[in-house]
Amino acid sequence: MGATLGRYQLERELGSGGMATVYRARDRELRREVALKVLFPHLSKRPEVVARFLREARAAAALDHANIVRVYDTGGGAGSADDDDALSDPPYLVMELVEGRSLDGALREHGPFLGEIVAAIGMLLCDALAEAHRAGIVHRDVKPANVMVTRRGRVALTDFGVARLDDDDSAILTRTGMLLGTPAFMSPEQALGDPLDARSDIYSLGATLYQLATGKMPYSGSTQRILTAIIEHKTVPPLQRNPAMGGELAGIIEHMMAAAPADRYQNADEASDALLDVVMAGGIAPGPDAVAEQLARFFAAPADYTEAMVPKLVAISLERARAAAAENALPQAMAFADRALALDDDCDEAVALVERLGTHHERRVRNSLLVAAALVAVIIASATDFTLWPRDSDDAANSDDSSTWVGGGVLIPDASPQPGARGRDDGARSIGDGDQRAALTAPATTATATPDPGAAPPASPGTAAATADTDTERDSRKPRTRATTAGASARPRAQRPAVEPAAEATIDAGAPERAVVAIDAATAVVVAPAPATVTVDIKQWCDLSIDGSDYGRAQRTRAIELPAGRHRFVCSQGPGRSAWRQTVTLRPGERRQLSGSVLAPVSVRVEVSGGDAVRIDGTRHDNGARLQLDPGRYRIAVLSRDQERSYDYVSIPAVASCTVRDRPTLDCYR
């Protein structure tokens, strides 16, 4: 280029953002390559913007960390007065030249990263943020575009241009009413304009990891829609968008992105420790050098690295699933098995394990619901003094048992206090004690009593035995009590007649012991496992089938109820044509959104002449960017300095590659 700024010789433009252009330059005095960030000329006339710009220098220059881009010097405008030409130059920052590319560019080119790679990047960025936070600096604009990665695997956080320092003039920028930061990665408190602390950066880093792991931003659309969604915390859980990322990483990201700051990790070190566990569980050795080596290998050849790592990660996930199942930790076992299947849906061992664990999990859920139903029935009957076995007044006066028999199967003790009643250990027991506990744990037994041949026949359900004695009739409406008459002799407990159960619930906890609880039809509560609800969002038209059954044309607004368990989804445009396939395991009551494309993604390049970038369905892409898009229809806007100049709805064809141009008309040209 030949132009100079101070002692720096500009060589070529590296890129531009919302307020500055970055050049590769050479320091003529120190004879080294640097990066020069030069403020746009029209912004140089605004004192508040210049102040904001120079704040980056003060913020970053105070930091010395391997994962933060170093700032060497400032110049131009009000930045320096070392020479007479400084005042005529626009303000600029002199920074370390990082030979590499942004995470944003790598993501557009290669799509979502492996979960372990995402965790490794996140761990290093947490360490960088922890250093900044200890210095009293909140970055406020953490996003993939502000993270550089080198060929050697070094990850470096840059662009502290909107950082907040703990000094007196730190509020100057917000007083102007400017929205600082990138909306899609803002924390709720930042979107609301509330005071920020380190936990806001943790949220933004979580949103960054969300995009790296899923290939999608957590929020998209117009700025107003994004801000509303952030404030209302409306985003798709990351695991739904990419089950292959793993439940542990998804949980960490959701924790980082909690709506309330108090619900997030309280500092970057905590988040770093959690991410380190994911890295180590994936077989990557801890330590900056080992992590950098893995990142270097990944970014050198992402597809080859992923292909080599997937079998290892599947084996690790299956091993962890079996270990969790052995400890009876079924949810964890299911999560590990689900990830193995998401990584390799053709892995027979993963399929078998998911099916086995799914069956066991459903059985446990079903049994828990049936036990709950039995207890509800017992409580209802007890509350209404529901007695199915009649007793005469003499038996009522002398019996040592104040229990009520319900449905011929469940013994309910009278809970009302009794004058002179014996202690719990001597009298009736609650369900789960004594005889009842034995009945509920005995193999293949039914909790019914042996009928007494001499006992009176059972009364009709819901009625009490009546006598001609008025006092007895009146007393029958009182709570039954044990005999308290002095000298009353105790009688052996009478055997109640068995009542034929109307419904029978089998309790099977997966152990060798089983129990059957009989519940009367009048009080039985039938609780079936809640179905799962699935929506399927496919970019193109296709006919959907689930487990071989035809569900017609796929519609993203259609909610499909399915029983919990494993299901195979296929969406095709016809025999012999490409199809989208996915196998998922659904849990009772779960709501899941599935998305994809029946066609291979298209390699898209951006080359517009009427602007410096485009926005495709809410995501900005600079001129020269390469990205992967599914064939389909997109809203594409041409931007000039972040201002929308024109837009149109463009169909990305089902081809290997195309280029977005705005001449002669906005389209993707082959």
From TrEMBL:
One of its GO terms (molecular function) is protein serine/threonine kinase activity. Its EC number is 2.7.11.1. InterPro entries: Kinase-like_dom_sf, Prot_kinase_dom, Protein_kinase_ATP_BS, Ser/Thr_kinase_AS. Residues 8-276 form the Protein kinase domain. It catalyses: L-seryl-[protein] + ATP = O-phospho-L-seryl-[protein] + ADP + H(+); L-threonyl-[protein] + ATP = O-phospho-L-threonyl-[protein] + ADP + H(+). The keyword Endoplasmic reticulum does not apply. Residues 438-453, 482-492 have a biased composition (Low complexity). ATP binds at residue 37. Keywords: ATP-binding, Kinase, Nucleotide-binding, Serine/threonine-protein kinase, Transferase. Residues 395-506 are annotated as: Disordered. It is an enzyme of class 2 (transferase). Residues 422-436 have a biased composition (Basic and acidic residues). Gene3D superfamilies: Phosphorylase Kinase, domain 1 (3.30.200.20), Transferase(Phosphotransferase) domain 1 (1.10.510.10). The keyword Transcription regulation does not apply. PANTHER family: MITOGEN-ACTIVATED PROTEIN KINASE KINASE KINASE 20-RELATED, SERINE_THREONINE-PROTEIN KINASE NEKL-3. This is non-specific serine/threonine protein kinase.
